[in-house]
Amino acid sequence: MSAKEEKPLKKVCIICAKGSIEDVYATLIMANGAVMEGIEAKVFFTFFGLDAITKKQMKKLHTGVVGNPAMRMPGGLPFPTLLGILPGVEAGVSAMMKSQMEKLDIPPVDEFLDMITAGGGEIYACKLATDMFKLKKEDLSEHVIDIITVGDFYAMAGGENTQIIFT
Questions:
Q1: Is 27 in contact with 49 (CB distance < 8 Å)?
Q2: Within 13 Å and on the Cβ side, how many CA atoms surround 98?
Q3: How confident is the model at residue 20 (pLDDT cuts 50, 70, 90)?
Q4: Where are the domains positioned within the chain?
Q5: Is 11-63+85-166 in CATH node 3.40.1260.10?
Q6: Phi-psi region for residue 108, left (φ > 0), alpha (ψ -120 to 50) or beta?
């Protein structure tokens, strides 16, 4: 198929399975970008990604510093992983990351969820993961439409020109 024959993307189904700032924000930015472009967006939060939509956790996300080979210090030097185990280092790095995001006017998680849902995006929680972590619908953000199974999510992913994205 040539570029002239390509059909525009109609729907993205994004799966967020990690709860670090960088993984959650990758999900939120992609979902928000989709709705801003008029693309249908469905976001499925599972396992530690549930932290982004759990009321008690959504404002406490941290940057993963241990075992993150892409982590850099100011100036671009590689971050020594061993430092990540020292008390306060993860909190400090997370605070720096949040400060940089504020300077760029990147909204907090709850505001991002507002923007996504206002644009027609849909937010779902994984039934297996919520059962595992003993979470109920009332523990989750009001933006969560429902707690669904993986099969339910796949059923929503049907249709021409749909992409499933795992962050």
A1: yes
A2: 15
A3: confident
A4: 11-63+85-166
A5: yes
A6: beta
